[in-house]
Write a structure and sequence with these properties.
Helices cover 35% and strands 12% of the residues. With 354 residues, the protein is α/β, with parallel strands linked by helices.
Amino acid sequence: MTGSGSGEDVVVTHGGLHTDYRKEIRYFAENRVYSFQIESNLSCPQGCLYCYASDENSLLMKELPREDIALLLKAAARMEVRAIDWLGGDPLLKKDWYSLMRHARELGLINNIWTSGMPLANKGVARQAVEVTRGGFISVHLDTLDEGIYGQLHSGHPRQKIQSILAGIQNVQFLGKNPENMINCITLTKPVAGDVERTIRYFHEKGMRTCLTQVCGAGLARDHPEWIPEPGEIKAACETRDRIDYPSSQLSFCTMDVNKYYCGGIVCITVDGDVTPCSVIRKSVGNIHHSPIERIIEEHRDELLMTRLRSPEGMPENCAGCENSDICWGCRATAYYETGDIFGPDPKCYKNRR
């Protein structure tokens, strides 16, 4: 993976995921919201047994009402938010996903889709997804190509599900989606850790980067503490990702799945209307059914955008002096679930254990 051609480090240009990385970094510096993460529904065909978003049957269609999403899109446009990151569940299972994303584009917003990848096996869905994500990215989710490991972590038939995701990727790329604007998301668990290099290499050969998410003790994962990886396993996986996807960079975002410019510019609205600093951190600072999103953000900007971490004195122990502090501040979700403090040290960061 190469940089943008103008000399920037590839972890800066690509590690924030958004295609307009310069504006993303400027928004970060100005403590502005670059993207709304909208959790449109909780239905998902993948059946991840560690899902952070739900304690329920993943096939239930619990969703954020269309009228709430429409209000969020209008608010985003007023606030000059640049992008909508559509989350689930699988956002492509919400029956009106296409019209909502077209409406977002009409308002000048960029659509990014975080999908299981399975709905993209339908060529009509793939065509619509490519259309509405012009200028944005599509992320699919395949933890491993190994059917045995996949079967430990997901319900249903591993071979069918893996093949469906791979067919969806093929459809999207055939229909014109630039692979550099596609990502595969791996949720790093102990079962996946030993197989992670093969999966990262597979997607790298397809021109796609890997978003390496550490499983946290949230949602269904609370029933599987044995799946939470140790710092040594996280270190090996992150170094593998960096070596394959960012070989020319000396920087790393360690236990994070993206650099801090992404994390420090998002606000998540869950399927229940709760407003949180991250989709994995299920800690609400307000609810859009009780207060307008603009007011919630204004009153809780410091917590939502992690502004305390922008200065060395506000960083957790060991972060300020770390060689990666320009792009990383540890995983805030891991810090929250391991210590109860969003702003505390990330105990899974292998840099903290030197």
